[in-house]
Amino acid sequence: MSSIPYTSSRQRLINISCFIIWVICAFIQTALLWWFGVDINLALNDSLISATLTSLCCYVIANALNHYLPRRKGYFYIVIWGLVLAAISVSLDRWILQYIIHDQNYLSQIDLSLPLRFFVNALLIAWIAMINILWNIQQEHKENEQRKADAERLAREAELYNLRQQLQPHFLFNSLNSIIALIGRKPEEARNMTFQLSDFLRGTLRKDDQQLIALKDELEHLQLYLSIEKVRFGHRLETQVTYDEACLTKTLPAMIMQPLVENAIKYGLYDTTEKVTIGVACTCNNHMLEIQIENPYDSQSNKPRRGTGFGLRGVQRRLFLLFGRTDLLETHATTHIFTSIIKIPQL
Amino acid sequence: MIKTVLIDDEPLARSMVAEYLESYPQITVVAECNDGFEGAKAIMQYQPDLIFLDIQMPKINGFEMLEIIDRQPAVIFTTAFDDHAIRAFEQHAVDYLLKPISKTRFDQAVTKFLDTRGLAADRENTRKLIDDVSHTGGKLERVVVKTGTKIKIIPTASIIYLEADDDYVKIHTDEGTFMKNKTMASFEEQLDPLQFVRVHRSFLVKIDHIIRLEPHEKDSHIAVLSDGKKVSVSKNGYARLKQLLGM
Predict the structure, then answer these.
(1) Nearest CA-CA distance, residue B127 and chain A, Å
(2) Inter-chain contact B100–A177, Cβ cutoff 8 Å?
(3) Is B138 left (phi over 0), alpha (psi -120 to 50) or beta?
(4) Count of Cβ atoms closer than 10 Å to residue B183 Cβ
């Protein structure tokens, strides 16, 4: 069972087709009765009422199917519904006609034609039901295709974004530039930085989004990143990483802190010209690991914060997908300090 | 002697350029700067012929720094990764170096500078580039101005109205009035058209600050602003206002 989205264009189509059925039924029945030699007034009364009832039944079944698409087993019920509706329309027709037509002779003629009327109505209703079902199936197929295409597009975009995040071209090229600058005068440092950069990149590429890793490993990876950034901005970048020993074995999704620390460094460094201290503090209890990341920032400079949104949203989305909660990421801003806090439930 | 200033927030990146420059005895590095503020100061102080300029820097970026200096030297941009800026460089034929910078590519850029030094066309290209990059990146969110020797960053949210004044535009804000060497037309183009309306040839006003409109002479009006100032509204300006406010 599935509900089909209600569309007004669809509703209009049902209205129009039921109206057409009404007109055609009335017209054909009148013409036939007149041709059989029935008085034109009698013929008109009879056909208008039966056509109205028939098209009402068509309307009912079309609307029912508009909101409810039966599965294979359900087709049987559609047949029963069609027969029941046909029976109802014919009986109602007969019941109303006895108050409108007083010619007893004609009424008994109607009684004779009741099976035929029932048969015609049942066919009409079945036909309408069939068209609706076909249409629903086609519609659903189209929607499925659309959904599939959307999902694929989203997956592709996410993958591209992830790749790009992993490569971090700005960070990578600047680091390479620093290494080249170091090679001439401080080859030892250049060598060190190359190792750190390759360890960092390896760690980034190896990690699977779904994987939970120990805080100890994540902090080591973060340390690589921070030491590279310190070579680049050593003259004004300070970092302060604190943690309880007990927390080191707690687990968290791989690379979940990375975007937040990157943001902290980026905005810390680009919002001010002074020395910058980035703070990372990890605390925990039995059920929860909490990581707090702080950076100074300037609420006055009102810089367009490109990227922050996406970085934070990405973290939020991952936390939601992994833990099904939306309250695991918080951010606070005072005039000088921007803080983000992530909470990782310990399962 | 050719004077040059290196502006980059990474000391190692500057030392790299300085090292490459050692093979050009005619070029002397007169200053190394960590950010755009220092850069602007050094340029005013030393009047260099050439600068090496990073784009992503603290507080104000390389383009914004160029906007506030009076006498513009030749510029070679250095950047690690910025699609948007690189497209602009190519479009305006302005020289740039991608990090990591190779000596070969560096030599090309410096040779080109030495050959074409002093050509007005190059400077013109850079000017156009600055105008262009400052507004293809979305709506203007802040304006960087110089007041005396100080540099001030004005968020567009604090602007009340802009007034044309010869070659300058007076920016009236909550905190006072600042001058910027730029045209009204470029401001009109770069500011959010749903917030700022050119009510007159000489006035670009933030809609939220208009308190009321009074009829003036035939065909013209006067707008009273939240800070008590009155500005003229031309016939066209009135039509634009009416359209925007849905009157």
Answers:
(1) 23
(2) yes
(3) left
(4) 14
What residue of B is the nearest CA neighbor of A178?
B12
Owning domain of residue A240: 235-345
CB contact under 8 A, B59 and A178: no
Nearest Cα of chain A lies from the Cα of B221 at a distance, in angstroms, of: 34
- Decide: residue B57, CB within 10 A, 0-12 exposed, 13-18 middle, 19+ buried: buried
Q: Which of B12, B41, B133 to mutate to test the interface with A (most CBs of A within 10 A)?
A: B12
Contact A273 B35 (CB under 8 A): yes
Question: Do A130 and A28 lie in a common domain?
Answer: yes
| A305 contact partners, CB below 8 Å, separation of at least 6 | A267
pLDDT tens string B155-214: 888 899 999 988 889 999 988 899 888 888 888 888 888 889 999 999 999 988 988 888
Least confident of A80-89, A185-194, A200-209, B29-38: A200-209
Number of domains in chain A: 2
SS (H, E, C) B90-118: HHCCCCEEECCCCHHHHHHHHHHHHHHCC
- B interface test, pick of A168, A171, A174 with most B CB neighbours within 10 Å: A174
Does one domain contain both A246 and A142? no
Final residue belonging to a domain, choices A154, A188, A204: A154
Q: Which CATH number does B2-136 carry?
A: 3.40.50.2300
Around Cβ B88, how many Cβ atoms within 10 Å?
Answer: 22
Question: Would residue A340 count as lying in a domain?
Answer: yes
Domain ranges of chain B: 2-136, 142-245
Strands A237-243, A212-214: pairing kind? unpaired
CATH number of the domain within which A279 lies = 3.30.565.10
Tell me the pairing of strands B27-33 and B2-7: parallel
**Residue B210: in which H helix or E strand, if any?**
strand B210-215
Indicate whether A146 and A239 sit together in one domain: no
d(CA B61, CA B3): 22
* CA separation for the pair B137, A76 (Å, rounded): 62
Residue A102: CB atoms within 10 Å = 8
A 130-189 → B contacts, CB under 8 A: 169-170, 173-174, 176-182, 184-185
Residue B144 distance to chain A (closest CA, Å) = 10
Classify residue A315: in a domain, yes or no.
yes
Angle at A35 between CA A30 and CA A37, to 5 degrees: 100
- How close does chain B come to A234, measured CA to CA in Å? 9
pLDDT recorded at residue B117 = 74
A218 occurs within a structural domain: no
Task: Answer yes or no: do A38 and A147 share one domain.
Answer: yes
Q: The domain at B142-245 falls in which architecture?
A: Beta Barrel (2.40)
Q: What is the DSSP string of B30-97?
A: EEEESSHHHHHHHHHHH--SEEEEESS-SSS-HHHHHHH-SSPPEEEEEESS-HHHHHHHHHTT--EE
Identify all chain A residues contacting B150, using CB atoms and an 8 Å cutoff. Answer: none
pTM for the whole thing? Answer: 0.65
